[in-house]
Automatic annotation (TrEMBL):
Family: Belongs to the sigma-70 factor family. ECF subfamily.
Lineage: Bacteria, Bacillati, Actinomycetota, Actinomycetes, Kitasatosporales
Protein name: Sigma-70 family RNA polymerase sigma factor
Coiled coil: none
RNA polymerase sigma factor 70 region 4 type domain location: 107-157
One example GO MF annotation: DNA binding
Keyword Transcription among record annotations: yes
Quaternary data: Interacts transiently with the RNA polymerase catalytic core formed by RpoA, RpoB, RpoC and RpoZ (2 alpha, 1 beta, 1 beta' and 1 omega subunit) to form the RNA polymerase holoenzyme that can initiate transcription.
Amino acid sequence: MGDGTWSAELFEEHRARLRAVAYRMLGSLSEADDAVQETWLRADRAGADGVENVAGWLTTILGRVCLNLLRARDRRREDPLESRPADPVAHGAPEDEAVLADSVGVALLVVLDRLAPAERLAFVLHDLFAVPFDDLAPLLERSPAAVRQLASRARRRVKGDGPPPEGDPVRRRRAVEAFLAATRGGDFGALVGLLHPDVVLHADRFVVPTPEPITARGADTVARGAMAATGRARFTGPALLDGSLGLVMAPHGRLALVLAFTFAADGRITGIEVVADRERLAALEIAPLED
């Protein structure tokens, strides 16, 4: 065991960075906090005597912890749905996680969640936190060149290779972001103003869920439905869906549904398709919007 005094003080100097790394690795604030705590326990047991680069040493320990969690998550995904355990109850304030998801980018978290564990670790630690490939190679038990390839493959997935957005992408992006802001803020009037009077919303049967898909027509009706989704909107962000502007909802970094939009020539929203069907979601190419 470490002596618990110097190590605690030293660890606190690195906690914020480690939490940031863990959140991007895991997409869940509660899991990230658990991973940081496990990193502290392992580091305290080992002690840092003789360690010159404490930040790199702690990041390596955290990387192993996160990699194990991601691999366990992948194994659960391969199990039949009926045999999977329920998701653990998240601790911490949902508002904190929503703010953090916004700062990182919900769409980025969705794309990262689709990467293989080794790809995710290589991309997050190298591209987002500048960890050299030589340092990542022992962690992933691969050569630096192989880790470089993992990061490159992940980078292509993050950037996406779909067609450029059609129409006026700037105006449409503003409309999508305004729709999200009005939904989060419960601003009914602003929502109605963004919608075409004859707007049509289609939601598949997995959204609510319901026995049959749902269709809503008219700006007032669609806006009232959006008001009921204010809580969901906290974990929703803009994204490209097969090259078109839309929204992704991903509580704890796991894709739950998407909203795809169609627009009139004046920029108002004429159609909204809400998709929660797992097979359709898996077939979508999702990419973060460029700043």
